[in-house]
Design a protein that fits this description.
By secondary structure, this protein is α+β, with helices and mostly antiparallel strands. It has one domain: Roll (SH3 type barrels), CATH 2.30.30. Helices cover 22% and strands 31% of the residues. The protein has one helix spanning 30-50; strands at residues 9-10, 54-59, 64-69, 71-74, 78-81, 86-88, 92-96. The strands form two sheets. A four-stranded mixed beta sheet has the order 1-3-2-7, covered by helices on one side. A three-stranded antiparallel beta sheet has the order 4-5-6. Strand 5 (78-81) and strand 6 (86-88) form a beta hairpin. The longest helix is centred in the middle third of the chain and has 21 residues, at 30-50. The radius of gyration is 12 Å and the shape is globular. The chain starts with 8 loop residues before the first strand and ends with a strand.
Length: 97
């Protein structure tokens, strides 16, 4: 599903630590969830090998946001950015490499 970029507010990586994330999954389609996982794995490889920045479109408890950053790690539940900043995977709408 295409993303309407104008709905997303740009945020700096350092501001993510102050956000609150609900436990509800933002994607409803199993195919989209699987695609998100593949995109995160690609972003992780690019981050570790080339320090390549990607855009993460995500949602906290108040609004949709976008951050441009390097992915340093991915667990079953979290995207790990520099300085231990994390975004719950279930709150990520899309990754743009």
């Amino acid at each position: 599903m295409p993303i309407n970029v104008s709905e997303y507010e740009k945020i700096e990586k350092e501001g993510i630590a102050d956000l609150k994330f609900p436990s509800k999954e933002v994607l409803s389609d199993p195919t989209s969830i699987a695609e998100r996982k593949l995109e995160l794995e690609k972003a992780l490889k690019l981050g570790n090998n080339e320090q390549h920045k990607i855009k993460i479109y995500f949602e906290d408890d108040s609004s949709k946001k976008i951050v441009e950053t390097t992915v340093w790690g991915v667990t079953d539940k979290r995207v790990i950015l520099k300085q231990g900043v994390v975004i719950p995977i279930h709150r990520v709408h899309k990754i743009k490499i």
